[in-house]
Amino acid sequence: MLPGNSPVVILKEGTQRDSGKKATQNNIAAAKAIAEAVRSTLGPKGMDKMLVDSMGDVIITNDGVTILKEVEVQHPAAKMIVEIAKTQDSECGDGTTTAVILAGELLKNAEELMDKGVHPTAISNGYRRASNESLELLDKISRKVSRSDVKTLKSIAITSMTGKSSEANADFLADLTVNSIKAVAEKKEKNSVEVDRSNIKIQKKQGGSIADTEQVSGIIMDKEPVHTDMPRNVKKAKVALIDAPLEIKKTEIESKIQINDPSQIQAFLDQEESTIKKMVDTISKSGANVLICQKGIDDLAQHFLAKNNIMAIRRAKKSDIDALSKATGGRVISNIDSMSKKDLGFAGLVEVRKIGDDDMTFVTDCKNPKAVSILVRAGSEHVADEIERNLDDAIGVVSLVFKDGKIVTGGGAAEIELALKLRKFAPRVGGREQMAIEAFANAIEVVPSTLAENAGLDVIDTLMGLRKSHTKKGRNQHAGLDAFTGKVVNMQSRNVVEPLRVKTQAVSSATDVATMILRIDDVIASKQPEGPEPDGSDGMGGMGPGMM
């Protein structure tokens, strides 16, 4: 207040501000609420969530990132937690739930330290040191795996599918995953390998069972030929890929054609027909017998293509055209007049098959396919969607091992080993950061404790049993939890393995977001333009603790 008792207004009317301890508590509560939302999905006995959107569409999944993407999160701190799930998914394809619950646990432990009077900056510094040490320790306890070790690669895929809808067919789907990645893997310099996950196309079609899922050395398109007289089966196909329309182009500027004589109408139509026929003749002369066009194909062009016995498909997706270019070795043509035999791709067979109620075009038997497809079949649309997500995760983790060639044991074994070594490291640091490193070690154990919790086991007994196996004489650093029997077993001999990068990415992402949230001591939120929410709240976007 100024001497004249007139208030100084700094923030506009309706702005809500939380500062100090209240701001930190709200942010931590929101992060913990997000972690709790996905916690029960972790592990072999994780449960699924049913998500219903405003349109009534249903998604049934236990994939952490899918759940968090579908739930409309409003709290700014909660959005930061969702971001790490998205990053984990794009980088690794799996481990999203691990990253989120680890971030939630780090913040929960930090809150307890703050209540004891430890400054957030000291906690952040301790967390950073613990994270850096963790990455080094994980690298030390990892082991190398050869790209030709199919058994281990399959085990990685099976581990990622355990506890999901695909679990019953995990062995079969893991085979498809490994074969697909081997097909699209491209060697780079210095013996490195690049796997572009987008080169493995997953098409899903309701009907049949999961066991009917198949891999195709080529591309599957949810399209059919544009004309009934076109061939539906072409062997030794020469494929033309065109991203220009087979239609009369419209002028860029506004124009009018004035006709004074009825005979000129026919001449105009004849000219149009001649132009389209010339395009088709150019395609036919190149030797192409299959045409896949990204744009439209005129009715007259369809007629001429059918007369030339050329199978034509229109309005193909750009991603399909790009994948076909890789699979068949053909070039994407933008100017039909300049196309030649050299631009064409090759496929041993292009055929139309009836899958369920729909016709789909299969481009198969390519010489050196750098793009492959997996056709997912399932009894219902929701199951097919979930199998697609499971396959996507499996492809992500196996492709990581192809790139990095390093794995760690699962079942909570790596986390317990990490926590024990961090506790030994903490006293060497000393001070308040030591407390933060010990809190970090406790947070890391959230993975095995959640696995035990979801399996209906006693969490404390399980953690004690795991720690004992890792510390006793003749210790076993690969000891992890078998969620089905409740016993501590050697995860390496059980082939329960995960890529190193899934763990390192989860640790670094969770640490980054936790330290960022801890350093926030003031939240200033402008009033939402919509006005009051239907529930009578102030439109603040769920700034209360844990609101989603």
Give a structural overview.
The chain is an alpha+beta fold. The chain folds into two domains: 16-143 and 409-525, GroEL-like equatorial domain (GROEL, domain 1); 219-368, GroEL (3-Layer(bba) Sandwich), CATH 3.50.7. The protein is 46% helix and 17% strand. It contains 16 helices and 21 strands. Strand 10, helix 8 (262-285) and strand 11 (290-293) form a beta-alpha-beta unit. Helix 1 (21-39) packs across helix 3 (76-92) and helix 4 (96-115) packs parallel to helix 16 (500-518). The protein starts with 15 loop residues before the first strand and ends in a 23-residue tail after the last strand. Residues 531-548 have low confidence and may be disordered.
Q: What is the CATH-assigned architecture of the largest domain? A: Orthogonal Bundle
What fraction of the residues are assigned to beta strands by DSSP? 15-25%
Task: Report on the biggest sheet.
Answer: 7 strands, mixed
Instruction: Categorize the overall geometry.
Output: globular
What would CATH call the homologous superfamily of the largest domain?
GroEL-like equatorial domain
Low-confidence runs: 531-548
Instruction: Report the span from N to C terminus.
Output: 37 Å
Structural class: alpha+beta
How large, in whole angstroms, is the Cα Rg?
29 Å
CATH topology of the largest domain: GROEL, domain 1
- What is the average of the pLDDT values? 83
**Fraction of helical residues:** 40-55%
Integer tally of domains: 2
Q: Name the CATH class of the largest domain.
A: Mainly Alpha
Number of helices: 16
**How many extended strands?**
21
